[in-house]
Amino acid sequence: MNYFELPKIDLHCHLDGSLRPQTVLDLAAQQNLELPSQDADVIKNMMVAPETCPNLQEYLDRFALPIKVMQTADSIERISFELFEDAAKENVKYLEVRFGPQLHTKQGLSYSEIIESAVKGMKRAEAQYDIKGNYILSLVKLLPLDSVNDIIDAGVPLLGKGVVAFDLAGAELDNFAQEYVEYTQYARDKGYRITIHAGEQGCGQNVYDAIELLGAERIGHGVAIKDHAEAYQRVKDDVVGLEACPSSNVQTKAIPELKQHPLNAFHQDGLAVTINTDNRTVSNTTMTDEVKKVMEQFKLSAEDYKQIYTASVEQSFASDEVKKHLMQYA
């Protein structure tokens, strides 16, 4: 099977985890920022997490350099364009990218400017390549909550025009959902779709709570439901999409090794499982790599892949028109 040629969909990809190392060098030079090295390979090593990290924080530390150069409208637009370009060049037909606007205000950009820049870069790539996309606005847990509604409001003018959903990301504490009920409700009332990082480092109960309390239609990762019958059943009954990120899950120790990843068992049991990159640079991966790893590890067939691709279309936050377009590749 030619994995490169397969049509692919990535529903869980972080903007700040998917930069080209050379772009970091270019932007640092433009912005007169000091970097530890001018060697692209060294910079890449600083952005790529080890194959196995001692903990999630070790993985998250790899975002420091990208965030440093992502403080201007031009830099955000360029990085957005390049991510969609890179994805399109490996036959990704649809890409949902998430990022936290709170992380990009150090030089005075407003939330509206930050979001508009990301969407502008994406639209430029859509015009040049056979790829469609949307943005998901992430609230990074542990950052101040007083600006969350401002972020949601800033994205409203672009809802349906490049922005589609609201997300909670960052380090996962047990029972985190209670703290965010009012914010996800506010986002839903404004017209946002909801996806929540849950059941990655935390417990399966977090997944149940994300669905029950926060209205999650999809779950980022969700691997912990394998040990939580109630959460598992809720995901299955409500057809909640699971955004599996195989390489990332092994790196962060959410799963000890790929062969123990539950995504195949989930798929065989009829759950809506999708395959995603999480962070192309930090996890040193592509959609081609992720699909190949999963297909070969679990000896999946072309029919299995078609089912996963179809689930990805159905679980996407794309418009009906775009979904119809994507199904022609199935």
UniProtKB/TrEMBL annotation:
The active site is at residue 200. The record marks 221 as: Important for catalytic activity. GO terms for molecular function: 2'-deoxyadenosine deaminase activity; adenosine deaminase activity; zinc ion binding. Residues 7-327 form the Adenosine deaminase domain. It comes from the Bacteria. The keyword Transport does not apply. Substrate binds at residues 14, 16, 170. This is Adenosine deaminase. It comes from Vibrio galatheae. The gene is add.
